[in-house]
Amino acid sequence: TLKMASDSPESLMTLCTDYCLRNLEGTLCYLLDNETLRLHPDIFLPSEICDKLVNEYVELVKTDSIFEPHESFFTLFSDPRSTRLARIHLREQIVQDQDLEAIRKQDLVELYLTNCEKLTAKSLQTLVSFSHTLISLSLFGCCNIFYEEENPGGCEDDCLVNPTRQVLVKDFTFEGFSRLRFLNLGRLIEGVNVETLLRPLASLAALDLSGIQLNDVGFLTQWKDSLVSLVLYNMDLSEEHIQVIAQLRKLRHLDISRDHLSSYYKFKLTRRVLNLFVENLVNLTSLDISGHTMLENCTIPSMEEKMGQTSTEPAKSSIAPFRGLKRPLQFLGLFETSLCRLTHIPAYKVSGDKNEEQVLNAIEAYTEHRPEITSRAINLLFDIARIERCSQLLRALQLVITALKCHKDDKNIQVTGSAALFYLTNSEYRMEQSVKLRRQVIQVVLNGMESYQEVTVQRNCCLTLCNFSIPEELEFQYRRVNELLLNILNQSRQDESIQRIAVHLCNALVCQVDNDHKEAVGKMGFVMTMLKLIQKKLADKTCDQVMEFSWSALWNITDETPDNCEMFLNYSGMKLFLECLKEFPEKQELHRNMLGLLGNVAEVKELRPQLMTSQFISVFSNLLESKADGIEVSYNACGVLSHIMFDGPEAWGICEPHREEVVKRMWAAIQSWDINSRRNINYRSFEPILRLLPQGISPVSQHWATWALYNLVSVYPDKYCPLLIKEGGIPLLKDMIKMASARQETKEMAR
C-alpha cells in the first residue's frame, strides 16, 4: 500500500492551492497601487480552503527558494465574511506580529506557532482576540513572545543613546481562554511564571512543557481529572515531580525523555519509579523514557527470559516493571537507553537504536520538535543504509525528506540527512521509487545546496544528484541545478572532490538536451566558468578529470549553439586550446574533447574567419596525422578544416600553409581511417554534415561528410539509418552521385 500511496498523483485540491499561491494576482487577487495584494470582491472561501492556502503558503516560503513571499499575504484573510480560518500552522521567521494582527478577527480553533522568533508580546495581545474559540495552541520555541520593547522616557536625543530594551511581560495569563484544551509551551523563556500563566485554564487535556525547568509542578494536579497527555522533555526531574505525575491518573501519554548530551542530570530512573507509573497510570498507552540512565537493573535475568519469538505480551516482558501492564503500550520511547536492546518489549512501536524499525520510529517521533535527537537517529539510519540493506525504504526516504524540509537551517540534520539520502537513492533501490518521490529528493537536495556552503553538505548533495538519470530526472529543476553547480565552481577556494563531481554533473546536464537549455545555461556564465577552471589547471600544469570534463562540457554546450561558440572565442578559448595542446601533448582524451568543441565552432559560418590564421590552420593540419583516441582527433581536425574549405578559395586569407597542401593532407588522412571504426562520438543531428554534400567548391569536404555518414550508418545502423532518412539525407546523396565535380570514390561511398 505504501508503494501505491507514494505513486498516486497530488489531489486536485493540492494542485489548485499550489497554482493559486504561485499566481495570486492571476487568480484570487489583484494588486492595489502596484504593491498591496487585495482579494477580488466576489470571492468567498470556506475554512477548508483558507486553512490550506495559509498552511501551504508557509510550507512554500520555507522549502521553495523560487517562491516569493508577499508582504501583505495575511491581510487577505482579515475579513471573516469573505475568508474563514480555523486551523493554521505557522513556522519560523515567516510570521511577524503584523501578520497575526491581520487575522485577529478570525475564529481560530487551532493555532500552532513553531519557532516563530520574530513574534513579540504584541502577538500575546492578538492571541486574546482568539481566546473565545481557541481549543489548541502551540507557542513552541517562540522565544520572544513574552518580550515587549520598552522605550525609555525622555527626549528624542536620549532615545538615540538608549535604543529600545526588551522587557519581560509578567502580567499575561490565559484568563478568558475558556475552551483551551491543548497547549504547548515548549522551550518557553525563563522568568515566565508557568503556574500563574496556566491557572485560569479550567480543564487542560494536553500540556507540553519541553525544555522548561520547574522545581515545583504541584499545580498540575488541578487538572488530574482532565490531563491525558503530559510532555516534560528535558525537564530536570526529582522525587517530587514523580509523586505529582503519579497522581495524574487519567494520563494516556507521558513523556519524561531527555537528551542525554544536553547537560549534567542528577535524576536516575529506578525500578520503583517505573512500577509507580504502571500501578497508578492505568490508562497509559504511550510512555517515553528515552535518554535516561537506569540506576538499578530493571531487566529480567536472561536465564528467566523466555527465548524464542519476540513477544509484546506484558507477562513475558524483559523489562520487569512492565510485567504489570494490563496490555501492551502503543508506543514506548527507549532511544539512547540500554533497554531498547532487550528481547521482549511490551509495546507495538518502540523508538531505539537496536534496528531499522526502532530507528525509523525515533525519526518519526522526534523530527518536529527535537532536531538534536533526530540528527543522531538519522545518523544511525545512514549506517544501516550504508552497511546493510534498508527493508522499509520508502518510509525511510519520506522521513529523511521531512526532516530535511523541516530543519532547513540545522547543520547537523543537513549533514546526516544528505549523507543518508545518498545511500537511500542509489541504484539498488531505484525500482522501488516513484517519480514523485525522486523529485522530492531532488528538491531537498537543492535546498541543502542553497542554504549551506559547508563542504560536507555540498559534497553529499552533489553525490546524491549523481544517483539520478541526468539530464532527464533533473529537467524539472534545470535552471536551478545549473545555477547551484556554477555557483560551487565559481567559489575562490575549492574542495578538489566537490569540484570534480560538480564538473561531471555540469557536463552531464548539457549533454543530450535541446538548444534552448544550452543557450540558457550559456547565459548563466557556463562557458566562462569552464574556461576559468581550465585556466587554473593549466597554471598548475595538471591535466586531471576536472580539465578533461571541462573541455567535454564545452564540447557539449557548443553543439549547434552559435551563441555559446561565440562566447568561447570571445573569452580567449583558442588561446587556452593552444596552450593545452602544447602543455599536454600526450593526453588523447583531452585532444579529442578540444577538437570536438572546435568542430562545433567551425560549423558556424560567421565565426569561421576567426579560425583563419596561419597558426590555427597549421595546428589543425598537423593534428590530421594524430593517432590519438583511434581516429577521433584526426576525424575532428578534418571536420574543422572541411567547414573552412567549404567557404571557398577566396576565404583562404593566409599565405602559409597553402590551401592545396592542406587539402592533400586531408585526403591522405581520410584514406588512412578504418571505415569500420567504432566511434567515441554522439550525433543528435546530421544537419552540419549534410550541408557539405550539395556543393562543388570543396570535394574533400564532401568526401569527409560522406565518409562520416557511411561509417556511422554501417557501424550503428539502428541508431543512424532512421536519422539519415528523417533529416532528408537520401535525396542529397542521390543528387551528389550525379555531380560532375564529386570524386569517384566519394560517389562509390555515397552509393
From TrEMBL:
One Gene Ontology CC term in the entry: Cul2-RING ubiquitin ligase complex
Taxonomy, superkingdom: Eukaryota
Keyword Acetylation: yes
Occurrences of domain Zer-1-like leucine-rich repeats region (ranges): 196-337
Annotated keywords: Acetylation, Leucine-rich repeat, Repeat, Ubl conjugation pathway
Span of domain Protein zer-1 homolog-like C-terminal: 404-750
Keyword Repeat assigned: yes
InterPro entries the UniProt entry points to: ARM-like, ARM-type_fold, Armadillo, LRR_dom_sf, LRR_Zer-1, ZER1-like_C, Zyg-11_UBL_adapter
The protein's assembly and partners: Interacts with the ELOC-ELOB/Elongin BC complex. Part of an E3 ubiquitin ligase complex including ZER1, CUL2 and Elongin BC.
Family named by the database record: Belongs to the zyg-11 family.
Protein name in UniProt: Protein zer-1 homolog
Organism placement in taxonomy: Eukaryota, Metazoa, Chordata, Craniata, Vertebrata
Gene from which the chain derives: Zer1
